[in-house]
Amino acid sequence: MNESMGTGMRAYMPYMVMAWKAAKLYDTCFASIEKAHALTANERDILLFLHNNPGLNTAADVVQYRSISKSLVSKSVESLTRRGFLQSDKGTDRRCLHLSITPKARTAVTELSRAQQGFFAVLGEGLSEEECRVFNGVLKKMGENAQRYARKE
After folding, report:
1. Do residues 61 and 47 lie in contact, with contact meaning Cβ atoms separated by under 8 Å?
2. Are 48 and 116 in contact, with CB atoms under 8 Å apart?
3. What is the pLDDT of residues 51-70, one digit of tens each?
4. Residues with Cβ within 8 Å of residue 62, at least 6 apart in sequence
5. Percentage with pLDDT > 70 across the chain
6. Would you say 98 and 58 are in contact if contact means Cβ atoms under 8 Å apart?
7. Can you give 37-59 as a three-state secondary structure string?
8. Burial of 92 (0-12, 13-18, 19+ CB in 10 A)
């Protein structure tokens, strides 16, 4: 990064503040649903991940794509399974459990999905398709930079 080009911390501060506010709003959007269904934030995130990504259905997928620690994913999957919200199937690879949302969890997942869609609608208010496209491109590059840096550690 080059400070003289305006890419120092001050240049990123509006993004960081927006990210913090968005994260707080995201959690707020789900608070009543989590309370009604006795879900933790991690359990919510796992259910939404499985709902939104049908081809990614293992605990390892959740760890990789949602950046939740293995131990928290394991604890949350165990809790969701014990309460009948998830079921697991070994499939052809006995080392890898494939997770699926049960009918018992459908109401909670539907409510969570609606809240998530509402959250993204609020964030996108007033943005043109072009602004969304550019913003997504910037976020993709920033994510790639973060991944590349994390691999160096």
Report:
1. no
2. yes
3. 999 999 999 999 999 989 99
4. 45, 46, 49, 50, 56, 68, 73, 77
5. 92
6. yes
7. HCCCHHHHHHHHHHHHCCCCCEH
8. exposed
Task: Judge residue 59's burial from the number of C-beta atoms within 10 Å of its C-beta, 0-12 exposed, 13-18 middle, 19 or more buried.
Answer: buried
Residue pair 40/34 in contact by the 8 Å Cβ criterion: yes
Expressed in angstroms, the distance from the first to the final Cα of the chain is 18
pTM score, whole prediction = 0.84
CA–CA distance, 75 with 37 (Å, rounded to integer): 17
pLDDT tens-digit profile of 98-148?
999 999 999 999 999 999 999 999 999 999 999 999 999 998 998 899 888
pLDDT value at 94 more than 90: no
DSSP state of 36: H
**Mean pLDDT, rounded, for 59-86:** 94
